[in-house]
Amino acid sequence: MSSPPSFVRAPVRDMAGYAPGEQPGPGERVVKLNTNENPFPPSPRVMRAVREVDEEALRRYPNPTADAFRAAAAKVLGVTPDMILAANGSDDVLTIATRAFVSPGGTLAYPDPTYSLYPVLAQLQDAKVTAVPWAANYGLPIDALLATKADAIYLANPNAPTGTFVPPSAVAELAAAFGGAVLVDEAYADFADDNCLALVRRFPNVVVSRTLSKGYSLAGMRFGFAVAQPQVIAELLKVKDSYNCDAVSVAAAAAAIEDQEYYRGNWDYVRRERQRVSAELTQLGYAVIDSHANFVLAGVPDGRGKDVYLGLKKLGILVRFFDKPGLADKVRVTIGTMQQNNALIEGVKELAAGAEKASAAARPAADKDKPDKDKQADPAEHRAAAPAAAVRPADKADRAEAVAQAK
Ligand SMILES: Cc1ncc(COP(=O)(O)O)c(C=O)c1O
Fold first, then answer.
1. Degrees to nearest 5, angle at CA 51 with 47 and 53
2. Domain 44-259 -> CATH class
3. The pTM is what?
4. 209 has which bridge partners?
5. CATH of 10-38+261-406 among 3.40.50.970, 3.90.1150.10, 3.30.70.270, 3.40.50.300
C-alpha cells in the first residue's frame, strides 16, 4: 500500500488502529463464536419500540442526552439520571472518557492483556500507555498500577479476553489510593456474579462503563452508558459528540433495560452453557480459564492456538485468535446456544481426531494397525452435522427452554 498522506497527524499515521473480529458476509453460514455477541434475539419489547418510532422522531434531532434512556436506566440501577451518560456503544464511553481524563503527553495505564482498544484511544490522544502485567491468577496489580502515575486506569471487569474477574474490594483499594480516574469497563457484567456499581457512590474518581451489545443482544444497535457521580457526568457530557445517540437506539435501549426479566433468563442460560463448555473443553485437554463473561479463553493442548482457530474456521466455526505474547497458545470462544456450543465441541473433537490420524500416519506401520486407530470417526460426518446443527431453528426451542427454566 502507498504511504499515508503527510497531512495526517503522525500518531494516526503510526498507529495500526483497532482490529475488530471478522464478520461473515451476507448469507455466509457459520457458527459465529468470535465477537462475544449474545446468541438470543433482543426482547420483543425492543422490537416493538423500534417499530413504533415516530417519523417525526427521525426528522428532528434526537434529545442530546438520551433522557428517556437515562430515566429508565436510573430506575433499574438505583441511581439518579444525572449519574448516567448515554453513548453510541461503550466504545463511545471509552472515547469520551479518554478525551476527558487523559492529557496529551500523559499516561493511560491498564492491566494487560486486556481490551485492545485502550492503547488505540490513548494514541489518538497523543498519550502514552503503560500496560501492567496482571498479578498472579489475574489479580489486580494495585501497586504496579499506582506506580505508573497515570492520568487514568482502565480495568475491564470481567476482563477480555481472559474472562477473569477482580473483586470490587480490590478495585476500591485502587480507587482510594489513586488520584486519577478509574474506569471500570463492565461490558460483560451481566454474566458475572458481582460488579463495581456501588463503588460509584463511594468514590468520585470511579466511572463504570456498561454496554447493551452483549447482555442485551443489541451489538448492531450501538448503545452503551457510563455511571458516575453527577459532577463527573457533567464533564463527560461536554466532550461527547453533540448527538451521540440516535432516536431509534434510545427507544430500543430504554425498552431493553426495562425488560430485565427477559434478559435475566438469557444471562442464566449463557452462564449454564459457559460451565458446560468449560467442562467439556477441559475434558478434551484444554486449559480453560475460569470465566465470568459470555466467552471462555482456552489454552490449546499443544499450544498451537492458530491451528485450532484455522481448523475450526475450515469447519465453519469462527472463534477468536490473538497473535500476541501470552495469547497465541489460546483461543477465545463466545458462548452460544446449546446447538452452537455442541458444534464447537464436535469441531474441537474432529480437529483432535484429525491430528491423531496425522500423527498415526507418521508412526511406523506396526503401530498404525492398532484397532483403536481404526475406530476414529470420519471427520466428514462431523463437518456435515456441526454448522448445520447451529443454524437450524432448534435455537428458538433452546431460548424458549431457557426462559421457561429461568422463571
Ligand atoms: C471489554 C470490552 N469493552 C467494550 C467493548 C465494546 O462494546 P460496545 O459494543 O459497547 O462498543 C468490548 C467489545 O467487545 C469489550 O470487549
1. 120
2. alpha beta
3. 0.88
4. 185, 226
5. 3.90.1150.10
User: 298 C-alpha to center of ligand 1: Å?
Assistant: 20
Of the CA atoms within 13 Å of residue 278, those in its CB half-sphere come to: 18
How far is residue 122's CA from residue 106's CA, in Å, rounded to a whole number?
9
Kindly give the distance from the C-alpha atom of residue 365 to the centroid of ligand 1, in angstroms, as a whole number. Answer: 52
What kind and span of H or E run contains 389?
Answer: helix 379-391
**Least reliable range by pLDDT among 94-108, 148-162, 272-286, 342-356:** 342-356
| Cis upstream peptide for 161 (omega within 30°) | yes
Q: Which of 211, 222, 225, 332 to mutate to test the pocket of ligand 1 (most atoms within 8 A of CB)?
A: 211
Give the count of beta carbons closer than 10 Å to the beta carbon of residue 16: 9
What residue ranges of the chain are covered by domains with CATH 3.90.1150.10? 10-38+261-406
Residue 91 alpha carbon to ligand 1 centre in Å: 6
Q: Is the CB of 37 under 6 A from ligand 1?
A: no
**350-403 pLDDT, tens per residue?**
999 888 787 788 776 554 444 343 333 332 333 233 333 333 333 444 434 433
What are 298's three cell numbers? Answer: 482456552
CATH 3.40.640.10 domain range(s) in the chain: 44-259
For residue 36 and ligand 1, the question of a CB distance below 6 A is answered with: yes
**Does any ligand 1 atom lie closer than 6 A to the CB of residue 219?**
yes
